[in-house]
Amino acid sequence: MKSSPGDGRRPQRADARDNRDRLLQAARAEFDEQGPHASLNKIAQRAGVGPGTLYRHFPNVHALLVAIIGGDVEVLCAQGRELLEHPSPDEALRIWLRAIARHATAMRGLVATEMIAQPTTETSTALAACHQAIHATGTALLGRAQHHGNAPAQLDIADLLMLTNAIAWASEQTPADAGLLDRLLALINTGVPYPHHHESRK
């Protein structure tokens, strides 16, 4: 099993790795169903391990969520590297930003909440590594779209990611509108035309 960005873990025995993987899988399912009301004891039961095993790997909910986010970021960055070979740089960037938005709404919005929560020293290091990995991947995709596609030269990846996460948050707050996320993401692609100089009122 690969380590997630910035987790700093030492190699584990096979049984410990297996327990950790089952806990992460169970936690994701529990968070998907219960959101912030997920129970650590139920996660342990779902994984088929005792509470002590859970707490040895993850002392609290925050540590558990950070571990899940780290694994997801690893997948998102791998997808981004593959998209660097996509024949359309613009489409590659769009596909990846949609994946970022979907990730931000995962587990009933807990991913987005955790990314802006007050971190501990240990988890802040892991989350910082996640941010850096996403930023680096996005920079590569955006740069390719700027040089070989139609992305504006002045567009900054930090602004683009912030806008994407804001769109994800808005979508999460309006669950009844299933198409909102894609409609708002489309605005990034098409833009909203406006005059460079506002006419003064007379």
Automatic annotation (TrEMBL):
GO molecular function terms noted in the UniProt entry: DNA-binding transcription factor activity; transcription cis-regulatory region binding
Xref: InterPro entries: Homeodomain-like_sf, HTH-type_TetR-like_transc_reg, HTH_TetR, Tet_transcr_reg_TetR-rel_C_sf, TetR_SbtR-like_C
Top-level lineage group: Bacteria
Domain called HTH tetR-type: residue spans: 17-76
Region (Disordered) residue spans: 1-20
One Pfam family cited in the UniProt record for this chain: TetR_N
Comp. bias (Basic and acidic residues): 7-20
DNA-binding region listed in the record: 39-58
Record's keyword annotation contains Phosphoprotein: no
Keyword terms of this UniProt record: DNA-binding, Transcription, Transcription regulation
Protein name: TetR/AcrR family transcriptional regulator
UniProt source species: Nonomuraea terrae
